[in-house]
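>> Question from a student workshop board

For tomorrow's exercise we were told to take the sequence and the ligand below, predict the bound structure, and bring the output to class. My setup keeps failing. Could a helper post the expected result so I can at least see what it should look like? The ligand is pyridoxal-5'-phosphate.
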Amino acid sequence: MWLEKLVRPEVLSSKSYSSARMENQNLDLILLDANESPEPPYGEQGSRLNRYPDPQPEGLKRRLCEIYGVERNQLLMTRGIDEGIDLLIRSFCRPGLDAIAYAPPTYSYYKVAASFNAVKSIEIPQCSGFSLDLKALCEVTSVKLIFICRPNNPTGSMPSLEDLKVLCTSRSEDSLVVVDEAYIEFCDEDSATSLLADCPNLVIMRTLSKAYGLAGIRIGSLIASEEIIKLLKKVLPPYPIPTICATKALEVLSPVGMFYLKRRLETNKVERALLFQRLMSSPRIERVFPSQANFLLFTSPHSKQIYRELKESGLVVRDRSDDVPNSLRVSIGRSQDNELFLAALQIKSSDLESTQRRGSKSRKTNETEVFCEVLFDSQKGNLISTGILFFDHMLEQLAAHSGISLSLNALGDVGVDVHHTVEDVAIVLGEALKEALGNKRGIERYGFLLSMDESQTNLSLDLSGRAAIVFDCSFPSERVGDFPTEMISHFFESLSASLGAGIHIKTVGKNAHHMAESIFKAFGRSLKQAVEINESRKKAEQLPSTKGLL
Ligand SMILES: *Cc1c(COP(=O)(O)O)cnc(C)c1O
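>> Workshop helper replied:
Here is what the output should look like for this input. Compare the format with yours to find the bug.
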């Protein structure tokens, strides 16, 4: 069989190590088989940390297979993709004899792992515009493994599934094609797993390190035919996945976690497009390469100088000029990070006219870190992330109905309680709105709205410059989703104080979700009316106040 010729003979002939937890995983029995401590350490009573883990924790494996759309026998979990790379090289390449190939500029660990395994590296450089030299990759002789990074780090380019299929078919029985999909979640295209059925020599690597935000727990997956997985399993050390890592991964991969991930990926796409556009507009920057990942590569004759300037502003990017002359790679950060990055490069927002009403505030305490940008009369859209799902939902209603573009990012101690985060978001949002209102000349000042389904909110707003709050509403339940309803009055209280506004809210209804939603929507609508510019008043530079002060 072709695979038996490809794998190292030592691997083929070796017997699998049979670990205790492989033979017996029933932790309800009295386990005296693995020389473990009979009890967990102090402080960990009730945990199973004294026991060796399942070599391939079953629950996590099932969940990963579900997410990646593959069968149980097609997946092997490793300590990140990095261990997967080493495992493949050790399993297939004989030291001093065999070689791997890859297409620079690309991820550098392929070469590193080959070299410490005494395996030769053959480089098949990418063509101009960073496309694969498919012909050369198909024709290179005597290589056991061909590594293709998709999307590619550091260029962001995306080898097509058609090209991969051609490559797999043409290599057929003389090499494995290993596709590194560390960043696949960030792009619109499908994973190469769809080619598995047609390509027995294909291996795909996935990870929880990048999009899932779990680089700290080291969980990667190798996906391939059952025959390849069986061989790799022999070489993988007995217990690669620590119990706590598997538990943590399963938590994050819950439906709520996946929902949150999807939103983060959407945000990344929007931020990536904005950053791309604005980098392109800078005369100091030569080229920006289109990217399908969570980073952008750009070149400039002043790349070294730019690197130093950024560093002086407290920003670190990656100098990739060894691989691509005069290049820097920047990760897509939070909106505030990206703004600082662009500001340090002296790139002004081209879509912002100087007359645009805009407010941007941030606040950092021991408990929270909040950034908020509001743009009046803008099509930019909303990016809202507070770590509290129901609160995000409400803020989205507020933004949508106010016609304001809202970027809001809060990192708070929501594990303790949502109180600090909700309060600080309200404070920063109020301050940003106040800044955007500027001198208030020309505004309508008042807004109001009534109604919604079985719930009805009667909300009036006065941008008077003075804080006042009346909140008349009793919710039929203490929580909606992950949000305590008592926080709603507190939110508007804090907002009224920082914005300097009178807010009167009276709500009746039967369903707490509807009631909350009607309040946030009503506030959005009221805000829209109140901040609207009245053209005749604007011409006269008038304030809607007989006092002449707001
Ligand atoms: C970051 C990165 C990896 C490492 O992934 P881990 O799962 O954290 O080991 C692998 N490949 C590429 C292309 C990367 O950029």
